[in-house]
Amino acid sequence: MTTPPTTHLELAEVIAARVPAQVAAILEAFASAGATVRDALATAPLMSLLGSTGTTNVQQESTAKLDDLANDVMHQALRLPGVARLISEEDTVAVELGDGPYTCAFDPLDGSSNIGVAAVGSVLGVFEGVPAGGLSEATPVTGRQLLASAFIVYGVPTIMVLATPGRVDGFAYDPADRSWRLAFPALRAAQAQYTSINWTYRDRWSPAVTRSVDAASAGLRGRYSGSMVEDVLRVLMSGGVFLYPEDSASPAGKLRMLYEICPIGLIMEAAGGAATDGARAVLDVPVTTIHQRGPLVAGAADAVERYRVAYTAPD
Ligand code: AHM
Ligand code: MG
After folding, report:
1. Which ligand is the nearest neighbour of the Cα of 123?
2. Which of 255, 258, 296 to mutate to test the pocket of ligand 1 (most atoms within 8 A of CB)?
């Protein structure tokens, strides 16, 4: 076995100068929690960790044992100085921790339908300025309040993509010393090659969505995993567009603003790509409840723009 080069910078060295120390600690804690989740996934079939807990979460989705485990791991890791509250896909309400400028919103295990068979991941957004009294129509937040966001894909290799406004880096996990090392510095959203959408929902789409999906996807090859993080990683690395528009089964969209859509929006914009709900950049959409859903079309700027132009054209 060859020894990996030690010339790749460690996570802490890369982020130290870019974010306040407490935010750097949050990002390192997320990465470390990700290493723990990755280890649990690697041995899950041998540890009776596959399958459901038999309960449903606040979204009325069946909770997998690994959803629960990942949620516990993230909660323990992110109770840090400066963190006022934790918002998780798996929790009914925000967990208030006390005073502090930062709110961590996370999806502990994204792509749950792939647990045990294909890649899943975790997503984090670190917001500032979230109102202490909670979100409402009068006190919304937007993705522009993100100081940083990140997602991990627990594949081989295990990759973490981390953005601060204006810059995105990709880190590879080294299980030998549990480190995250800079493998893909200053990522740029590549030229579109792939389109990533659940085509089986075509009969659920409005005429505007149908024409816009077709416009964005023209000339591209299809790839869809059912795991947003995996599909977004492909879009970022290999070029393309990921789409989860609103449909008749999910009229507001399926994905959640705080811990799925906005973190990906920051990453795409920072990489020179784009992310829209059809009419607006997702980072500009007011979020008034913690589990608010929305449509997401994210990836190469030209493909996202084709979607926006078709979507906003008169019927
Ligand atoms: P989850 O957070 O419960 O896993 O749901 C989000 C996932 C995304 O990862 C993925 O893009 C989408 O749901 C797949 O949904 P569908 O099966 O409707 O295509
Ligand atoms: Mg998810």
Report:
1. 2
2. 255
Statement: the pTM of the whole predicted model exceeds 0.85: yes
Q: What is the pLDDT of residues 37-72, one digit of tens each?
A: 999 999 998 888 898 888 887 777 788 899 999 999
Buried b (16+ CB within 10 A) or exposed e, 160-175: bbbbbeeebbbbbbbe
Measured in Å, residue 8 CA sits from the centre of ligand 1 at 33
CATH number of 194-312: 3.40.190.80
More confident residue, 56 or 84: 84
Ligand 1 site-directed mutation target among 110, 154, 225, 296, most atoms within 8 Å of CB: 110
Span 101-120, pLDDT tens digits: 999 999 999 999 999 899 99
Residues near ligand 1 with C-beta < 6 Å? 61, 89, 107, 110-113, 198, 226-228, 244, 254
**Helix-helix angle 207-217:301-312, to 10 degrees:** 150
SS3 49: coil
Return the ligand 1 atom nearest residue 59 CA.
3
CATH T-level assignment (fold) for domain 11-184? Fructose-1,6-Bisphosphatase; Chain A, domain 1 (3.30.540)
* Number of Cβ within a 10 Å radius of residue 158: 22
Q: Which amino acid is at 130?
A: V
